[in-house]
Amino acid sequence: MADELTPDELLDKIDYGTDSGNWLDTTKSVQIRPGMYCYAAKPESVETLGLPNARSWNPTEEDWKLPDNWQQIIHDGIKERLEKFRTFKIFMDVCVRCGACADKCHFFLGTGDPKNMPVLRAELLRSVYRNDFTTAGKILQKIPGGQRLGGNRPLTLDVLKEMWYYFFQCTECRRCSVFCPYGIDTAEITIMGRELLNLLGLNIDWIATPVSNCYTTGNHLGIQPHAFKDMLEFFVEDIEDITGVDCTPQFQKKGADILFVTPSGDVFADPGTYTCQGYLILFQYLKEKYGLDVTWSTYASEGGNFGFFTSHETMKRLNAKMYYEAKRLGVKWILGGECGHMWRVINQYMDTMNGPADFLEVPVNPITGTKFENAKSTKMVHIAEFTADLIKHGKLELDKSRNANRIVTFHDSCNPARGMGILDEPRYVIQNVCDHFYEMPPNTIREQTFCCGSGAGLNAGENIELRMAGALPRATAVKYVHEKFGVNSLCTICAIDRAALPTMCEYWVPEVDVIGLHELVGNALILPGEKERTEDLRMEPLPGCEEEE
Amino acid sequence: MTLKQSLTQNHDQLLKKWFQATIDTYPPQSARILGKDVDRFDNPVGAVTRETLEDVLHLLASDYTSDTLEKALDPVIRIRAVQAFSAAEAVSFIFFLKKIGETVMDSAHTREFDRMVDQVVLAGFNRLMKCREDIFLLKATESKRRIHAAFERAGLVKELKEEDLLGSKKS
Fold first, then answer.
1. What rounded mean pLDDT belongs to chain B?
2. Among B125, B77, B96, B75, CA closest to B22
3. Among all residues of chain B, which has the CA nearest to that of A274?
4. Closest by Cα among A517, A512, A487, A501 to A451
5. Which in A17, A71, A215, A411 has the greatest CB count within 10 A?
6. pLDDT tens string A458-475
7. Contact status, residue B91 vs residue B124, Cβ threshold 8 Å
8. For residue A88, which of A118, A116, A129 has the smallest C-alpha distance?
9. For residue A17, what pLDDT is reported?
10. 10 Å Cβ neighbour count for A67?
11. What are phi and psi of A295, to 5 degrees?
12. pLDDT digit string (tens) for A19-40?
């Protein structure tokens, strides 16, 4: 082909210089910088789940209060996981350090820190693996310069600290794996890295405390059942003010058709609360028109699963409550709300962790007859898919003009996009409830979407510099559509996105607002018996209803 | 030739050298990638840095005020304000322009150009402070906006107003 380089041209491009730095050297990298790390897990949160080495510790102090045999614990932990997880073994062995992933990570692109290149982040663990578990590594470590040649190093305290620092600068978004010619899932390396760190009690509090709350109370914020119910009832009052229709939901109803589970962020955190009102409106509509029987649960009151960011055992324990509740209530199948990592847990791990859920039915939309084949094993359907199916079959009466003031773009949340392929359904819904929809550039959406920079438990306040730097690639694309098409609304289907992106926008593109998909649906859906609406779900005037100044 | 004319004439060379010097403030392994001229969405730091520096050079060659300089510098300073730079390192790239100016332009302009760069530095420092203030403000208000606001609307919590607090002090 004409655009291919000739051998001579190719040779001219080779840089024969040697690298001045040595990435194996930890002296610079383990300077743990405020703004980039999250606070350490509180001992009581680690204790709740019976996880090891619960104690107060501070990452910036020299002494991390590790058990004396910590190296042995990590060594045994790696060994156990190499034997248990074939993928982990392959991912440790097959990387050829080609660098295809290097410039694909939002944290690398935003921070400019080379150790945030996915390949180097993974090498933090691989270097130890090579040193302790491979024949070549064992031979090379005995000859002078051999360690550098083999890229292996012994597990010292500095290496451990470096692993901790950088494995909590990865949101497990998997953008890098899209570009890996070997199909290495670098997110799974971070998952393993965090599991190993948890063996020494090295979790962060923004993960450990939600996990503990979820385990004891049912949701990340530790909100008790009556407060959960109070919040939904408050939404019902607001919706009644806006629409004149009572959308009171059902709780723990035995024998309902469908159990609905959503991240608690939708119930307790703005602007997810408006998305939650959208769900209530949709369920009321379907009940009134088609008799659909949906129940909420104050027990399974969390779709999110921060156990996923701790260890596979913790993920399994938290995930189980959805199934238990579905079984206890005797529903046919589960409908899941707009969440990110919840869907990766469900789509990729739930079935083999807590499944098979033989007591549930293969999900069929009773209104359209559509059988959700993709969910026949997990028995759990994504609400974007459910609503898209209803629209496709003409089952929803929608008034797009109520969203006429919204010029929308769609941010694909990493996990639904790359973890389960929910790409077209939300776009289809948006286009049916809004008049103005513009895509961000192709290399920033769908499978190549850029992370919000706050996923995988990193949406804390203390690491805001890291989050803002990590959000830069996403913000650059948002800014582009804002300037080119006047986009003012960034729509997303993930609760962490809804919590994190408003801050991102405020720093990088202040004129853009964040909105959930079902908030748009709730605005557009014409409820049977509703009064003439003059306000949207945020109680702001609908287009055309603004008061004259 | 005036300084402004010289800036226009040497624009490309100034930009090329200033961009490279700025990108070289990153670790070498990163600078290699961030320095590439590729799609702006594949390399936002490189693209924004290049565009900002270009805008500043254009501004210097025409009319500028400290406000317009600050505004032009915003995109690159906004990025450097959240990266692993100290405050000095974050604005250091502007000083590089003095040395580059010496190598590129006639020495007759050196003093005048240095004074011009000083103004850019001051504007840059102003902007860095604003960006850092934005960050601190976001840090302070984020969780309140996110969670407290929803609870407050639902009447589950009540924020005491200043007068309530003062009242309780009196009693």
1. 90
2. B96
3. B150
4. A501
5. A411
6. 999 999 999 999 999 999
7. yes
8. A129
9. 57
10. 13
11. -120, 145
12. 556 666 766 657 899 999 999 9
Domain ranges of chain B: 3-131
Residue in the structure block whose two tokens are 């847990």: A345
Q: Computed from CA positions of residues A376, A381, A384, A390, in that sequence, does the dihedral angle turn out positive or negative?
A: positive
Measured distance CA(A498)–CA(A262) in Å, rounded: 13
Distance CA(A258)–CA(A251), nearest Å, equals: 12
Q: Residue A226: helix, strand or coil by DSSP?
A: helix
- Position A409 scores a pLDDT of 98
Query: Regarding predicted confidence, which is higher, A27 or B77?
Result: B77
Is A464 in contact with B142 (Cβ distance < 8 A)? Answer: yes
Q: Does A117 touch chain B (CB under 8 A)?
A: yes
B41–A270 C-beta distance less than 8 A:
no
| Confidence category of residue B169, pLDDT binned at 50, 70, 90 | very low
User: Quick count: other Cβ atoms within 10 Å of Cβ A534?
Assistant: 13
Q: How many CB atoms lie under 10 A from the CB of residue A232?
A: 21
A473 neighbors A171 (Cβ within 8 angstroms):
no
Which residues does chain A have with pLDDT short of 50?
A: 1
Calculate the CA A261 to chain-centre distance: 16
Dist CA B12 CA B57 (whole Å):
10
Judged by a CB distance cut-off of 8 A, whether residue A102 touches chain B is: yes
HEC readout, A52-89: CCCCCCCCCCCCCCCCCCHHHHHHHHHHHHHHHCHHHH
Q: Are B74 and B3 a contacting pair, CB within 8 Å?
A: no
Rounded distance between C-alpha atoms, residue A60 and residue B139, angstroms: 20
Which sequence spans correspond to the domains of chain A? 25-203, 211-524
The one-letter amino acid at B129: M
Q: Which amino acid is at A137?
A: G
Least confident of A518-522, B16-20, B104-108: B104-108
HSE (side-chain half, CA atoms, 13 Å) at A343: 28
Question: Would you state the pLDDT for residue A18?
Answer: 52
Neighbours of A204 (CB within 10 A): 24
- Span B122-165, pLDDT tens digits: 999 999 999 999 999 999 888 777 667 777 766 766 666 666 65
* Contacting residues of A for B74, CB less than 8 Å apart: none
Spatial separation of the C-alpha atoms in residues A40 and A203, rounded to whole Å:
6
> Are A234 and B155 in contact (CB < 8 Å)?
yes
CB pair distance less than 8 Å for A103 and B79:
no
C-alpha of A253 from chain center: 29
ipTM exceeding the 0.90 mark: yes
B154 touches chain A (CB under 8 A): yes
Both structure tokens of A311? 């260890």
Distance CA B48, CA B22 (A): 12
Residue B135: list chain A partners with CB under 8 A.
Answer: 464-465, 468, 507
Distance CA A122, CA A91 (A): 9
